[in-house]
């Protein structure tokens, strides 16, 4: 039990939109950008407007993988807790519009690099796509 709390110290978010984003991040991170379950979850949540959030989530995941100096730890979809990296990424999605300096610092810590503008813009686009469809990510 102690080992689980050390590796997965954060509880899942209460916000259903953050849970949806986390599910898509976990599925795409583990099974690739074209994961059918991630696409189905986005379609189910967003209906006809699913394409924009899905494509932008794929772009953000590509940017994260491309720019990260090291590995970004993600847990399997069945886990009822989050890694520090997952928690930070959801916090970035929640804060990128309202607290950009905080989001920038979190992204820099997550990626292990100083220049995070491109990845931060991807996260801002995902956050805006969720919000525009009536599903803002909050933590």
Report what the structure shows.
This protein has helices at residues 2-7, 16-31, 36-46, 51-67, 84-95, 100-111, 117-132, and strands at residues 10-11, 81-82. By secondary structure, the chain is mainly α. It has one domain. It is globular. The longest helix has 17 residues, at 51-67. Helix 2 (16-31) runs antiparallel to helix 3 (36-46) and helix 5 (84-95) packs antiparallel against helix 6. Strands 1-2 form a two-stranded antiparallel ribbon. It holds the Pfam family DUF6628.
Count of the separate structural domains: 1
Low-confidence stretches: none
Total helical segments? 7
Shape: globular
Q: Describe the largest sheet.
A: 2 strands, antiparallel
Strand ordering within the main sheet: 1-2
Rg, Cα atoms, Å = 14 Å
Task: Give descriptors for this structure.
139 residues; mainly alpha; two-stranded antiparallel ribbon; 3% strand
Helix and strand arrangement:
Elements (H helix, E strand, L loop, with lengths): L1 H6 L2 E2 L4 H16 L4 H11 L4 H17 L13 E2 L1 H12 L4 H12 L5 H16 L7
Antiparallel strand pairs: 1-2
Helix pairs in contact: 2-3, 4-7, 5-6
Task: Briefly summarize what is shown.
The protein has 139 residues and is mainly alpha-helical. It is 65% helix and 3% strand. The protein contains seven helices and two strands; from the N terminus they run αβαααβααα.
